Amino acid sequence: MPKLYQYLGITLFFYSNEHEPIHVHAKYEGKESKAEIHFFHGKISKIIIKDKGQGLDPKKRKEFEEFVNVYADEIVEKWVSYFVRKQPIAPKVITQRVKNVRNFG
Pfam families, alphabetically (predicted)? Predict the structure, then answer.
């Protein structure tokens, strides 16, 4: 289970036996959500947040969604590195709140 990021108390990670679509999981205080990254014509077209069980609380879910919107390209690179190239992933700690600048559509 490679850990990718620690962000405002949220742990973002892949499970070791993942499947497509490309996605990343987030855990905070025992609750979990995931973000699916979808493509159209080779470009990220949308990100869909799904809850596992109860899911993250609304504040943490919003922080997770904003983070994935900003870091989506890097998350995709890490997915390819880990699952395709079989390379290890070094986790990052992000202490500054991100600002969502991505607009899909």
Answer: DUF4160 (PF13711)
